[in-house]
Amino acid sequence: MDEGTAAVEPVTVVEASPAPAQARSRLARTFSALSYRDYRLLWLGAFTSTTGTWMQTVAQSWLVFSLTGSAFLLGVDGFLAASPMLAFSLVGGVLADRFDKKRLMFASQLLQMTFAFVLALLVVTQRVEVWHVFILSFLTGTAQAFSAPAYVSLLPTLVRKEDVPNAVAMNSMQFNLARVIGPVIAGFAFVSLGAAACFALNGLSFVAVIAALLMMGGGSLAAVSVAKRRSVMHDMREGFAFVASNGALRQLCLLGFAGMFFGGPVVTMLPVVARDVFAGGPRTYSWLLAAYGIGSVAGAVFTASTGGGTRKGRLGLGMQVAFAGALLLFALSSWLPVSLVLAFMAGAASVGAISMYSSLVQLTTTDAVRGRVMSIFMLAFRGGMPLGALLSGFVAQHISVQAALATNALLLGTITGGFALTKSKVTEL
What we know:
Blueprint: H1 3-6, H2 11-16, H3 18-30, H4 37-68, H5 71-82, H6 84-98, H7 101-124, H8 130-154, H9 164-192, H10 195-215, H11 232-244, H12 247-263, H13 265-268, H14 270-277, H15 282-305, H16 312-332, H17 336-364, H18 370-381, H19 384-398, H20 401-421
Helix pairs in contact: 3-15, 4-5, 4-9, 4-10, 5-8, 5-19, 6-8, 6-18, 7-8, 7-10, 8-18, 9-10, 9-15, 9-17, 12-17, 12-18, 12-19, 12-20, 14-15, 15-17, 16-17, 16-20, 19-20
């Protein structure tokens, strides 16, 4: 690692020593955000809770599909779960800039825990109907919409500025590692204990986040006083004005929306793919979801290892184009082994692109408006998911799931390719 010393040593030493040093340096850079105590606590808590959430996602998707047999109603459930982001995330961003972010997250975890236990009870007592699931999906999504801006705007405050991209990528890593582990655990729990066990375990998983919030430094969970009170609408307009005045932020929001509107529904439609394309059941669905999740982890590891390098904009665009290509081939494939490989590639490229975009948004904004800017970005990229799921579910129901995914892939590739081939603001980042 000390190049000056190595230069006077025998040749054999000079050539042998850099590799381990470089490997250690790369490994340290990949996981640098975990060297901060509070970030590490929150990361572990979020990973545990997200694992539980993915357990519920798998069980709930199959529950809705088994209750209705409808791809469209499966899309409706996805819409109801994610649509609160459209309605409430901007208010959540204002609250994140006004109040203690940990307190907002604490309240949200308690609510989500309650909703998971209610669904478990309905299933155990055999009283569950699809409208119960729809209502609880919307309520859970609402709780997430109010706390998500607080969570994503808290992350960069726990690390130094140079480690912000790594913190964002590590957060993507925990989310997608949970995407792999959650369905595996859900598969065992679902087969041996039933869907209610998945919902109950998800309820218990929220304890990890609550414990992490209580253990973190920075004082109690009391609200932060705001010296100058202004209306919520005023603060929301201020956030929109900040984004509107920055061309790069505008384009990042548009790209995030396109990625989730056209690419996000693939996860929601996997139960339909498992049944209609491969004549499979929960096991096939779990394999497809796990393959996508493993790829997502690989994509997050890659973006974490890039550190604070330049040309993140072009790299993000390239990965989103690759996502569109993998999604198109996935839609056309009817052989499960090939589809698993393509699901892996799609997951890696999708998460790589979103991680790059998220890092660039974090680095382009300021602490004073971070909560509002992140809520606008989340409104764009997470709000695209329910709208896309609803439209894709309709097309899958009336034509085929393969037609829905192939059309989405072509449109996503065209839009993203346009940004990549022109001198857009994103290519300059």
